[in-house]
Design brief:
The complex is a heterodimer of chains A (239) and B (96). Chain A is of the alpha+beta class. Chain A folds into two domains: 6-53, Multidrug-efflux Transporter Regulator, Chain: A, Domain 2 (Orthogonal Bundle), CATH 1.10.1660.10; 56-238, Heat Shock Protein 90, CATH 3.30.565. Helix content of chain A is 42%, strand content 21%. The chains are: A alpha+beta (239), B alpha/beta (96).
């Protein structure tokens, strides 16, 4: 049986981008369309769209490093849009076998990281406001990213002595303080670290050139200097 | 007086909404007689984050001190959040 092809408008609807964006992506080779013999109309295989949309980390990292467009379905322009999508993800996680109790810690980790982006960049976004928030519950992956100020610049407001991304990220994950003066307390990332260390949840977090890898059974918290300098923050959670 | 936190939502994540919840709660708090305890019931809450709780429970603890009573919860995010808040505030919550 011949597979039914999607029209460009249907593919645009699924991915949450404009038809023009899909045309551009086809011309650049980012997402190649199918043209029926002799025709000019663009069509897409459902499976190709699915595979294309599944590369969450690539979308997020291309966005924060080069400002590349990504499917609009992953974009949360406001904190309330994020909250709405987070609740939807929470429902799906609760139904995943084996996650009947653990779901709330995963939502907590994703929620804190996403909310931090909004809380610390409110009124200060350098260009695009909002965050990338993509997840695949079946595969057990959540990706969050923002093109905000990043941890170093945010924390420098209350800790002007901080000079490197590595030190700033270390402080963010280990010390009780907040970049939103005169707000005294910031405890979200501390709890994220504790929860990830004690549970079957892996975390990759990066801001500037600082990287945190918490992975596997024998996790220990350490901030290292990575090869790339990223804009804002990016996190990948695996479970 | 007993307050069910789920009245403010079941996914309590953002600092902004925690702060709004605390403001909305002021009128109820005024009705609390000076000698009465305020019990916080977490049942029905699916996820509680430290950011939300810091805006709601921390100022309540500061204002009510011993009169703030937390009811037990088997929700993992509630347990983890209360633990970190106690560390951050360097004060213990009173549990029933």
């Amino acid at each position: 049986m011949e597979e039914k092809l999607l029209k460009i408008s249907e593919a645009a609807e699924i991915l949450g981008v404009s038809i023009d964006t899909l045309r551009r992506w086809d011309e650049s080779g980012k997402l190649t369309a199918i043209k029926k013999e002799g025709g000019t109309h663009r069509y897409y295989r459902g499976k190709d769209i699915e595979i294309f949309a599944s590369n969450l980390l690539k979308f997020a990292s291309d966005w924060i490093s080069q400002g590349a467009e990504f499917p609009g379905t992953f974009y949360c322009p406001t904190s309330s849009a994020f909250q709405g999508r987070l609740v939807k993800m929470e429902r799906m996680l609760m139904e995943k076998p084996g996650f009947e109790k653990l779901y709330s810690l995963i939502v907590l980790v994703a929620g804190e990281i996403g909310d931090n982006s909004f809380a610390h960049n409110l009124g200060k976004w350098p260009d695009t406001p909002g965050i990338f928030f993509g997840y695949d519950i079946q595969k057990g992956i959540i990706v969050l990213a923002d093109r905000g100020l990043g941890i170093l610049e945010t924390l420098r407001r209350v800790r002007p002595d901080l000079s490197t991304h590595v030190k700033a990220v270390e402080v963010a994950f280990t010390e009780f303080l907040s970049g939103r003066a005169p707000e005294k307390r910031g405890n979200g990332l501390k709890l994220v670290r504790e929860v990830v260390l004690a549970n079957p949840i892996d975390l990759f977090f990066t801001s500037g050139d600082a990287e945190v890898h918490l992975k596997g059974d024998d996790k220990s918290f350490r901030v290292t200097r990575g090869p790339n300098v990223v804009r804002g923050c990016m996190a990948k959670i695996n479970f | 007086m007993k307050v069910k936190l789920e009245k403010f939502g079941t996914t309590l994540i953002s600092r902004e909404l925690g702060s709004e919840a605390f403001k909305a709660f002021q009128s109820t708090l005024l009705e609390l007689p000076p000698n009465e305890e305020l019990e916080i019931d977490f049942s029905g809450v699916l996820t509680l984050s430290p950011s939300w709780a810091d805006e709601f429970l921390s100022p309540l603890l500061e204002r009510l001190d011993e009169r703030l009573i937390l009811l037990p919860s088997d929700n993992l995010s509630v347990q983890a959040t209360l633990k970190i808040l106690q560390e951050a505030n360097k004060r213990q919550f009173k549990f029933r």
